[in-house]
Amino acid sequence: MPAVSAIEVTGLEREFPGGIRAVDGVDLEVAEGEIYAFLGPNGAGKTTTVRMLTTLLRPTGGSARVAGHDVVSEAGQVRRAIGVALQEAALDPLMTGRELIELQATLHGIPRAEAGRRGEALLDRVGLSEAAGRRVGGYSGGMRRRLDLASALVHEPRVLFLDEPTTGLDPVSRKGIWEEVSALNREGTTVFLTTQYLEEADQLANRVGIIARGGIVAEGTPASLKAEIGNPHLEIGLVDGSPETAAQVCRAFGRPLPERDGKVLLELEGGAGDVAQVVRALDEAGILVESLELVEPTLDDVFVAKTGEHIEEEASG
User: Fold this and answer.
1) Which DSSP state fits 92?
2) CA pair distance 161, 149, nearest whole angstrom
């Protein structure tokens, strides 16, 4: 029996005034119960896509259905079925965490007594019970993200949209959000996650879609996408000598990749067996090697292969 689709998108487009097409014919499908990670460089169309899928922005072409409802003609039904936590949470700094959760419940038509019970349970779930009576203006970035997540869950949505939920958080706060997202998914919630953290996509997602220049350029499980790349790459740190010259020397052994952190990157066609030859060739060219690391394919390699650039993990998109 085929999986039920939580999200179905066909030829989705969004053009802004001046002929700027931010999203250009996106097709994707997310099964119920999946975590789907949406990766893309800054300005690729990730956030614009999410805004259309959550009814915050009207498409200028194509169609999309979320939780079985059309995002244009059945926008109200879509909103009742989804939870949304965007990059910039609209949290009133003068309200307490408890007040904000209860307000969100009221907006969804949940009776007062039930709203109180549900709010307390959610605050406990995201570790904010002790801070529930404090004004949100005094919350840390990680606490705000957790409160926003709790707010998005108050009406028990079928599909949860998270737009870069951990950008700018410290590693401990980020891990806490990851654990909560995984727990929600185990309980049956479908998660559509935009992120610029490759580790986040690798750890959380059942499938990954990579968007560039407004269109999907790759899609699959993290393992299958990495398997497509196939060859390991060599990261070469130089004592001296030009990285450009070193890249030219390395061309004889594989495909040069965009430089990263001052290191020359080379996809090795012959695998680990070519490392010694690369070092010898660089030495003969008068280029001294400081460090060498052979790295198996990662999602960053997939990203480079599909988009021609490294993802900038601290940027917003």
Assistant:
1) -
2) 10
- The residue type of 227 is A
Asked if 160 and 153 count as a contact pair (C-beta separation under 8 A), the reply is yes
Cα separation, 176 vs 159, in Å, equals: 20
**Domain extent listing, the chain:** 5-226, 231-296
The DSSP string of 242-301 is -HHHHHHHHGGGEEEEEEETTEEEEEETTGGGGHHHHHHHHHHTT--EEEEEEE---HHH
CB 231 within 8 A of CB 256: no
pLDDT at 137: 93
Crossing angle of the two packed helices 243-250 and 275-284, in degrees rounded to 10: 130
Domain 5-226, CATH number (from 3.40.50.300, 1.10.540.10, 3.40.50.360, 3.20.20.80): 3.40.50.300
Q: What is the CATH number of domain 231-296?
A: 3.30.70
- Whether the full predicted model's pTM is greater than 0.70, yes or no, is yes
Per residue in 231-273, pLDDT (tens digit) is 788 899 998 768 888 989 988 888 888 888 888 998 887 767 7
Cα–chain center distance at 167: 10
